[in-house]
Amino acid sequence: MSFTKELRLAADHVWEASFQHPFVKGIGDGSLSLECFNYYVKQDAYYLSHFAKVQALAAAKAEDLHTTSRMAAHAQGTYEAELALHEKFSKQLGITDKEKEDFIPSPTAYAYTSHLYRSASTGHIGDIIAALLPCYWLYYEIGERLKQCTPQEPIYQEWIAAYGGEWFRGLVEEQIQRLDHIAETVTEKDRKRMKEHFILSSSYEYSFWEMAYTLEKWPFEIQNSYIVSVVEQG
């Protein structure tokens, strides 16, 4: 069994929970509220802006120029394809510049991106790819599962089309092959750590759907004045 097949099997129950999450199923059947999707778009744009930076860190840590070039291309692709799609969604949803200025990442979005940075700062390129891969791979599998769906909401149709296409499949397969190759060259201790990164990211992917579906908030306002008022109110 290849290393990535081992990872996929280990995370299967988490991925299945993502497939069955009402946010994902709601995109497929069109029942998801636009309020939830609006929230998701803003949080995902934040996530992707950091995802691209971590891809660039992987490029910097690569030991050969070909991998550096490819990971740099992936970072550029995140900006040009996915963030451009989110910019389009923002216009369709009427997300204002003021909303973008006032944006605060949710606890889950902040924690997930922090996990990616930690994987990048404390490990080698294999750690980074292992942490990044669930985002690629899970979205592709979701796109494949939903590509026969015909939700009436056009935005959901566009979202499904973006992740169910052949171009995205190629990116996923490239990263799977890259991680399998890396796994053959590192120690068992390294592979165990890479597996942990993959499982954590898979769990964060599930939490991301839940975050958007519940419109997750911080337990208190970040502004100190609000914290004081809560304390004073008992």
Characterise the protein shown here:
It is a single chain. With 234 residues, the chain is mostly helical. The protein has a single domain (3-212), classed as Heme oxygenase-like (Heme Oxygenase, Chain A). It is built from twelve helices and no strands. The protein has helices spanning 3-10, 12-19, 22-29, 34-61, 65-93, 97-101, 107-122, 125-146, 154-163, 166-183, 188-214, 224-232. Helix 2 (12-19) runs parallel beside helix 11 (188-214), helix 4 runs antiparallel to helix 11 and helix 8 (125-146) packs antiparallel against helix 10 (166-183). The longest helix is centred in the middle third of the chain and has 29 residues, at 65-93. The chain starts with a helix and ends with a helix. 35% of the residues are buried. Residues 223-234 have low confidence and may be disordered. This is Aminopyrimidine aminohydrolase. It is an enzyme of class 3 (hydrolase).
- Helix-and-strand structural type: mainly alpha
Helix content: over 70%
Mean pLDDT across residues: 91
Shape, principal axes of CA atoms: globular
CATH level-1 class: Mainly Alpha
What's the alpha carbon Rg, rounded to whole Å? 18 Å
